[in-house]
């Protein structure tokens, strides 16, 4: 649903925002230890918002983390615990930092209202509560939450599109080539080795021809998954082109890179790829060209050319092998 929301949030799609803002209701958590008060609020929002009640601050925090509330309503004059402390905790926790907080306050609580606002509470309502005012203020918070959520998703999605390959969720070629040179420079400065693998799936055209293009796509996804599982977090795994991939391995000399490349090659060849929801099994192999830094002064172009030449030899020598 995230991608869906983001797509709908396209910059020129004002209609999506319109729909977003006119959605009714919202899921509200009321934190209150006074039953009678809670019942009054509940009656006032009935039919407009979905209201849940929690009378323990720790449980309230947990629920705000686990459930997707649109707004929290906190009664500032609770007797059994400090509402301000709860507000402070909500603002400091990563999971509740962005959740709108609305406080209910008595006439006499001006100083505490100020402190609550200081802590980052979004708004307050005086008790006894006027129903229309309560609904209006809650609605404002719910809409703001929805808007910022959608905006954040959209920004994240845009950033992902810029650096990731859509099919495999690996880094894309542009991202890799914009980092490889500086990684090589950093390796040289620290006098660390560095290796690059260029991988090309064998006879991939015949996978498409035999099982169809969608099957080919599934193979590419599963292949990417196996590469990810057999590399480290600091390795840069990217889709270089159609069925060609590059793994950039910092701090990795030729012999270690050989071990990694062999492991990937084996993990691809040893188990058939299961596609079409288990209805089809395809044997896949990969050829891998390996290039490692020698004097530490190799440029990106030199490294990729070396890997490409090695890959060419791997194909020529019969495929399903690693050549350096
Ligand atoms: P070789 O062992 O020499 O590498 O043989 P090959 O068939 O893998 O080589 P070739 O480069 O001739 O074919 C690559 C094929 O990959 C051709 C193209 O249709 C297919 N391909 C490229 N991108 C995609 C994609 O995103 N999805 C699918 N399904 N196929 C793709
Ligand atoms: Mg190819
Ligand atoms: Mg080819
Ligand atoms: Mg190929």
Automatic annotation (TrEMBL):
Top-level taxon of the source organism: Bacteria
Every GGDEF domain range: 192-324
Top-level taxonomy: Bacteria, Pseudomonadati, Pseudomonadota, Alphaproteobacteria, Hyphomicrobiales
Gene Ontology biological process terms from the UniProt entry: cell adhesion involved in single-species biofilm formation; negative regulation of bacterial-type flagellum-dependent cell motility; phosphorelay signal transduction system
Portion of the full sequence shown: 131 to 454 of 460
Keyword hit for Lyase: no
Protein name: diguanylate cyclase
Top enzyme class: transferase
Keyword tags: Phosphoprotein
Keyword Phosphoprotein: yes
Reaction equations catalysed: 2 GTP = 3',3'-c-di-GMP + 2 diphosphate
């Amino acid at each position: 649903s995230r991608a869906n929301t983001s797509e709908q949030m396209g910059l020129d799609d004002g209609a999506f925002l319109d729909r977003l803002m006119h959605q009714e209701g919202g899921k509200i958590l009321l934190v209150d230890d006074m039953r009678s008060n809670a019942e009054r609020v509940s009656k006032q929002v009935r039919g407009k918002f979905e209201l849940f009640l929690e009378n323990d601050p720790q449980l309230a925090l947990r629920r705000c983390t686990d459930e997707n509330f649109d707004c929290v309503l906190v009664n500032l004059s609770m007797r059994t615990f400090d509402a301000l402390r709860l507000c402070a905790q909500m603002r400091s926790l990563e999971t509740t930092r962005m959740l709108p907080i609305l406080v209910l306050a008595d006439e006499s609580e001006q100083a505490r209202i100020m402190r609550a606002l200081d802590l980052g509470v979004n708004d307050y309502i005086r008790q006894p509560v006027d129903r229309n005012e309560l609904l209006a203020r809650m609605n404002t918070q719910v809409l703001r939450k929805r808007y910022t959520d959608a905006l954040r998703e959209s920004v994240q999605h845009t950033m992902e599109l810029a650096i990731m390959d859509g099919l495999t969720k690996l880094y894309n070629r542009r991202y890799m080539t914009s980092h490889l040179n500086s990684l090589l420079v950093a390796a040289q400065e620290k006098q660390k080795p560095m290796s690059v693998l260029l991988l090309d799936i064998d006879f991939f055209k015949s996978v498409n021809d035999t099982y169809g293009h969608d099957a080919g796509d599934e193979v590419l996804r599963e292949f990417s998954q196996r590469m990810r599982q057999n590399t480290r977090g600091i390795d840069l795994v990217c889709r270089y082109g159609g069925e060609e991939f590059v793994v950039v391995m910092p701090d990795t000399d030729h012999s270690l890179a050989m071990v990694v490349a062999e492991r990937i090659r084996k993990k691809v060849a040893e188990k058939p790829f299961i596609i079409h929801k288990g209805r089809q099994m395809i044997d896949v192999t990969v050829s891998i060209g390996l290039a490692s830094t020698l004097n530490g002064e190799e440029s990106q172009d030199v490294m990729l050319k070396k890997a490409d030449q090695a890959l060419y030899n791997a194909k020529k020598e019969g495929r399903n092998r690693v050549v350096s």
